[in-house]
């Protein structure tokens, strides 16, 4: 389900639009299907770089040269050194296993080959640990190689055998701190972008992002010659529900409505809350308009199931308007307006139905319904009585 363009990596929120060269690529490598809305709205616990008086630095050393490994241990664990917890492995495959099971503050990666093979090793390490700061150890002071390593995602570099303990510790600590700053910046940018493109109540896309989805789908439809459809949902008599139960109950109804609507659609369908009780759905690669009507009826059935609000059951209905490209419009604004007009036609025909000019609908007319009935508390038998259907 398309809800935005963000993903969570190791407890951090990342954004592919944030720039940063190699970092955009490494964030992409860490794409996760975690729920973005939850991560944004809740306090995100982000690991921070250890400072004086705090826990020791957990360092993963990936080095197949025993001599280099000995020098690193001697430099970081010698007399007077603040504690470093060093885990050593000789191969990157073993490092992946360690990363799956443990958290580390930094990786010290030995590059045995100064050519393309060495850079491939770094790229594979970056793919295995997209967020972890990596300091590479090279065998020669090759500026061209160092530049390529930084471009491939390394935070810093060391010349094997030439770094004194103070320099080694400084490079490691600075790499951790720079990575923390980068992560915080990426998180802030991603959060700002999310807030600008999503509805905070439901976590769905807002109008701006939905229009972007429609424009992208239109470009694809023009190339492929396929149809697409915009469905416009409006909850019947929602104002009366708000007036009777209060805005808190109305907000909860909107959240539950959004979840039900999302659950009964395809994974590739884009869903948005435009405003108030208005929701839209984008369906791409439509074979025929009648298929969209089937989807609309399925959604109407799903959202009409009783809701538990304020310790009582509430039954609602919705009206849906459908606009199909290219018959009802050839741009995003026209399609959304056409779907909105079709939704009002559905309300005019009695509500609790869908309407589309592209496919005649003859859904069974619901029984005539008046105003919302008074809310009654649950009976002592445990059966909940709710508002009459709107």
Task: Report what the structure shows.
- By secondary structure, the chain is of the alpha/beta class.
- It contains twelve helices and 14 strands.
- The strands form four sheets. It has a five-stranded parallel β-sheet with strand order 4-3-5-6-7, sandwiched between helices.
- A hairpin with a 2-residue loop joins strand 1 and strand 2.
- Helix 3 packs across helix 7 (165-197), helix 4 (92-101) runs parallel beside helix 5 (116-128) and helix 9 (238-245) crosses helix 10 (247-263).
- The longest helix has 33 residues, at 165-197.
- It is elongated, with a radius of gyration of 28 Å.
- It starts with 6 loop residues before the first strand and ends in a 34-residue tail after the last strand.
- The relative contact order is 0.10.
Secondary structure blueprint with pairings:
Blueprint lengths: L6 E3 L2 E3 L7 H8 L6 H6 L15 E6 L3 H12 L6 E6 L2 H10 L4 E5 L5 H13 L5 E5 L4 H9 L4 E4 L5 H33 L9 H18 L2 E9 L2 H8 L1 H17 L6 E6 L2 E9 L2 H15 L3 E3 L2 E3 L3 E8 L6 H17 L5 E3 L34
Parallel strand pairs: 3-4, 3-5, 5-6, 6-7, 13-14
Antiparallel strand pairs: 1-2, 8-10, 8-13, 9-10, 11-12
What pattern of helices and strands is seen along the backbone? Answer: EEHHEHEHEHEHEHHEHHEEHEEEHE
- Helical stretch count? 12
Number of strands: 14
How far is the N terminus from the C terminus?
A: 29 Å
Q: Strand order within the widest sheet? A: 4-3-5-6-7
Helix/strand-derived category reads alpha/beta
Question: What would you report as the Rg, rounded to the nearest angstrom?
Answer: 28 Å
Largest sheet, if any? 5 strands, parallel
Shape: elongated
Mean pLDDT: 80
Helix content: 40-55%
- Tell me the β content: 15-25%
pLDDT < 50 runs, ≥5 residues: 1-53, 361-390
